Amino acid sequence: MPLKPGSEASIAPEWIRSSYSTDEGPDCVEVAAHPDGILVRDSKNPGGPRLTLAPGAWAAFLPSV
Question: Which of 8, 41, 56, 59 would bridge 50 by S-S if both were Cys, CB 3.0 to 4.6 A apart?
Fold first, then answer.
């Protein structure tokens, strides 16, 4: 689900990384709560593409990780 035009620019997300992640770790993701949904990005490419998940989709995903 793409973000609404201009929505991210007006509200800067606060990205959170797992305490299990390190800068030397091979694969890390960061998440942020946002009015448009739950944002997910690759911590090694913060300016790259992001996923936007509906809160229900995020809640359904969490038990599998």
Answer: 41
